[in-house]
Amino acid sequence: DPHGKFSVDPQFGIIRTKKQLDHETQSAVVLTIQSQLGNSPVYSSTQVNISVIDINDNPPVFLTKSDKVTISHTQPPGTAVYIAHAEDKDSGLNGAIKYSIASKESNAFSIDPSLGVVNLTRTVFADKQQEYTLHIAAEDCGSPPLTSLLMLTAINLTDRRLDSLAVKIIILDINDNSPNFTSSSLSYVMEDVEVGFLVHHIIAKDPDEGRNGQVTYHILSGNENKAFVLDKITGLLTTAQFLDREIQEHYSLTVMALDDGSPALSATQILTIIVLDVNDEIPTFTKQLYETAVRENQDPGEFVIKVEAVDRDTGLNSLLWYKILPGIGYEKFKMNSSSGELITTASLDREAQEVFSVKGNSVKYLPSRSSTAQLSLTVLDENDHSPLFAKTRYQISVTEDLEEGSAILDLCASDEDDGLNGEVMYSLIDSTFGAFAIDSVTGSVVTTKALDRETKSQYTFRVVASDCSTHLPRSTTVMTVLIQDINDNVPEFEQSYYKASVWEGQSPKMDIIQVFATDLDSGLNGETEYSILSGNENAAFLIDSARGILATNTSLDHENTSSYRETASSHHLVLLASDCGAPSLNSTATVLITVLDVNDNAPVFSSPEYHVHIKESIPIGSHVTEVSANDCDADTNSEITYAIISGNDGGHFRLDGKTGSVDLMKMLDYEDTMKFTLIIQAT
């Protein structure tokens, strides 16, 4: 703005005029406006295209107020005798001129309203009129129209009298002047004008007369796409098709002005036509889909992405505003309306929403036009979550006969993070006594050796789930493994061979001995039942199946049975200890039961009477006889002592108390005593 015709409000940016504008002097102005925030060195600028719209403030102007032309009766009707030419500095319809004869003294003339060519309508004769005065009006097409007048005098050169001699020397014109362009070489047109719109009036002057000065106009080059049409007579350049500044924003037409002389002379002019922009384009994003990623847990104001739309219009018509359209999660973002930069307005949480689908909108106004693009925003994960087990404690029961390497439980800890941040590693932090291990990737707990409930019936250990983080706490769960029993242990007697004794003659159900068998299994598998497998002839004994107490079933007689063994021949008892498992396991033990003797039997002589015959002459000391008694009792109860309790009053005999041997102690006399009856007692 070198002439200071405009001012701008420094606060509100309102542009105002300071001086009178003149379309004919300058039809378009391009202002560069700069904005600056405070004293900051950062500023931005934009271009403002101002088109000065023409008003009809210039009338058509003839180059001269009056002119003369000669005519002759020799000229036939239709002869062009004069070309009226007026110029109008206005543009468009305001500068389009129509010609007419305002006042006629005769009907001998007519004028072409567009070209201004004055033609004879009939033959003029000398006796009619020698001079004609025509008032030619040039009127533009503005509203209201403006008019100028030219007074044209037509002199009839036809001689009417022969009584005088007139010598007239006419200097004939030769075509020695080329046309000279007087119209501007620059023109402006809005891109939205209709077909047939007057763009420019090309004017070239040729000072020659007649046909030598008659100019026609032609486009030599620059109109290859046939955008314009040029009236060769009037020089009016109009549009032949719709214009589009975004396709072609200016045209350079090489225009030729050609006179009708012989030889014809010409001049050329480069006519530059600037196509002025109107807001007829829709802004277009450089991408229909923008994809980017942003980290979670960042403070509000984090830069996300910059979108860009282009508008093929220029100046204010291409000024765009950006915004985001309402949608799910859109409130967490904010778009700079002028730059298209998208930032966050809140800290993002990938675990709450990983992908945001936002629509961006670019808008321009007067008239409003807009377009949209899709923004796909992926929230990048940060390791802000620890792995978590579903439960803080797990309890599982397994049988002790599991094979080594058997999986007993698949632990699972979930980590809401993504990728490596969400990959969980499992480990044990307590000893399992070599019984268990865990797959660090799958969390599967497996046995590493054969289990034995009888050795250890329960394992309690902690399992840790961790991710790749070094600062987040790990997740721990307590796992209890209960070993379920299987019947894999035989009841074991404390002794394989028992000895017991019982007095004979005891009443039945007398406890003799209690045996114990131990089964390391549990439950029914460890419950032991006792029974007598063999050696219990005549059911002399019974055993408590639960307590293992062996008792008499009948009264025992030492003299009838001395011992009970495993078989009938050996008289031992074989006891069986069986558990209640399925299948049942058992073991045996042997019990030797001795029936203790009670002195319940008297000695019995081998014969109730002994008869001995001896000679009276046998010497003293001779062995007479021997008595023998037997006692069914045992031990000291069966030791017998003999004594003569009667019949030996004379002391003739001596009895050995131990052996029962009777010896002669005195001489016998048949004549004195011929028979001795000794009563011997066995004790």
TrEMBL record:
CDD domains: Cadherin_repeat (cd11304). One of its GO terms (molecular function) is calcium ion binding. GO terms for biological process: homophilic cell adhesion via plasma membrane adhesion molecules. Gene3D superfamilies: Cadherins (2.60.40.60). GO terms for cellular component: plasma membrane. Residues 6-62, 63-181, 181-285, 286-389, 390-493, 494-605, 606-683 form the Cadherin domain. This is PCD23 protein. The keyword Disulfide bond applies. It comes from Onychorhynchus coronatus (Royal flycatcher). Its main location: membrane. The keyword Glycoprotein applies. Keywords: Calcium, Cell adhesion, Disulfide bond, EGF-like domain, Glycoprotein, Membrane, Repeat, Signal, Transmembrane, Transmembrane helix. SUPFAM superfamilies: Cadherin-like. The gene is Dchs2.
